[in-house]
């Protein structure tokens, strides 16, 4: 059967600006390049600019605009009814809240091939039964994907990196296909930038949603410690918005850092690379991170990155070779890493060069495209 005759649905809770949406864009782009018909089903919130990005790829986008307060049974029945209308051959669930409910809906709609991608590692915050629920849900799927080996292992107890070199007779029940970057697009963006005048300040920065998980408070505390250890002319630039913004602004005031810390708001997707290119040091202080897409992006832009050693970040970065890692939540060791890079410009350049090469060789979109193509071919050709 030609891929043009295969109708694929991709279910996602929201279409805002974040790592899950970027990974979903890569998924949809891969499928459309392979001539699948793709309809993205968004259950809840959406950003019109993100919707346009999916449509520009050639996907149909269906916005259900449901309220988050919808009950589980109503969600399952309503989504199952919608899925029957579209008659999908394959339904790909982005497994974030509401978790397993879309998988149940797909099975009720009698979709033969269902797969899911989990975008968060299992942590204590998920509760006692989350692992059991996901594992049960995986039996209802043809295959269950993770975005990093550590994320897969946190849910299933073991992990397997899907390989282009291995011959599979059928799709694995669960495996990892790493997130990817469109390095050609980043190269193009960088080529269009005007060479900025060198700044007299060392610019340390991060781009993320401002919530507890992203650990920006850890970075602010570390920057406060750095101010006491170094007389260097430096500033901290924070790009993003979120529910913790007021708390973080108050923390900056309490630590008397208002002259040195700037909150610069959320960046549109096309502004991430240009603004990252103006930073001297990038910090990703997340309390947990399934993959660490922004860390990988900053590394490919050619920036030295310091990140927490949380789950996927420790797979993206090799400490001392392609970046620096510090224990989750440890402001003191984060400060020491920042101080090391401030004092050693040669190390900054060495890490930046190695980081760019590493990302190109391990996480380029072309390899991701081939892996998704191989996996979908295994599913499409199975009974």
From TrEMBL:
Signal peptide residue numbers: none
Transmembrane segments: none
Any Pfam family matching the protein: Glycos_transf_1
InterPro entries: Glyco_trans_1 (IPR001296), Glyco_trans_4-like_N (IPR028098)
Glycosyltransferase subfamily 4-like N-terminal domain: residues covered: 17-133
Domain of life, per lineage: Bacteria
Start and end residues of each Glycosyl transferase family domain: 197-357
Gene3D superfamilies reported in the protein's UniProt record: Glycogen Phosphorylase B
Database matches in PANTHER family: GLYCOSYLTRANSFERASE
Name recorded for this polypeptide: Glycosyltransferase involved in cell wall bisynthesis
């Amino acid at each position: 059967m030609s891929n043009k005759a295969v109708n694929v649905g991709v279910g996602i809770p929201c279409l805002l600006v974040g790592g899950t949406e970027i990974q979903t864009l890569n998924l949809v782009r891969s499928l459309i390049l392979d001539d699948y018909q793709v309809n993205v089903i968004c259950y809840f919130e959406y950003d019109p600019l993100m919707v346009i990005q999916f449509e520009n790829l050639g996907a149909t986008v269906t916005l259900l605009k449901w309220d988050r307060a919808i009950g589980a049974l109503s969600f399952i029945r309503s989504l199952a009814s919608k899925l029957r209308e579209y008659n999908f051959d394959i339904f790909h669930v982005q497994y974030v809240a509401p978790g397993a409910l879309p998988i149940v809906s797909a099975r009720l709609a009698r979709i033969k091939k269902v797969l899911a991608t989990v975008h968060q590692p299992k942590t204590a915050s998920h509760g006692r039964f989350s692992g059991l629920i996901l594992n049960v849900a995986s039996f209802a799927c043809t295959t269950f994907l993770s975005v990093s080996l550590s994320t897969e292992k946190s849910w299933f107890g073991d992990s397997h990196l899907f390989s282009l070199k291995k011959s599979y007779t059928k799709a694995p029940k669960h495996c990892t296909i790493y997130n990817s970057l469109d390095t050609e697009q980043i190269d193009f963006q960088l080529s269009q930038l005007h060479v900025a005048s060198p700044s007299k300040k060392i610019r340390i920065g991060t781009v993320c949603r401002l919530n507890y998980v992203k650990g920006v408070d850890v970075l602010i505390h570390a920057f406060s410690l750095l101010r006491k250890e170094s007389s260097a002319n430096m500033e901290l630039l924070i790009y993003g918005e979120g529910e913790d913004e007021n708390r973080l602004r108050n923390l900056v005031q309490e630590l008397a850092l208002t002259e040195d810390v700037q909150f610069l708001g959320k960046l549109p997707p096309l502004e991430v690379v240009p603004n990252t290119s103006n930073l001297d040091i990038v910090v990703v202080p997340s309390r947990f991170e399934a993959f660490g897409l922004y860390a990988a992006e900053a590394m490919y832009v050619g920036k030295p990155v310091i990140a927490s050693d949380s789950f996927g970040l420790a797979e993206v970065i090799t400490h001392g070779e392609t970046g620096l890692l510090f224990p989750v939540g440890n402001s003191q060791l984060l400060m020491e890493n920042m101080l090391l890079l401030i004092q050693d410009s040669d190390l900054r350049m060495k890490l930046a060069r190695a980081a760019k090469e590493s990302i190109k060789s391990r996480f380029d979109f072309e390899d991701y495209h081939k892996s998704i193509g191989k996996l979908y071919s295994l599913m499409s050709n199975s009974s």
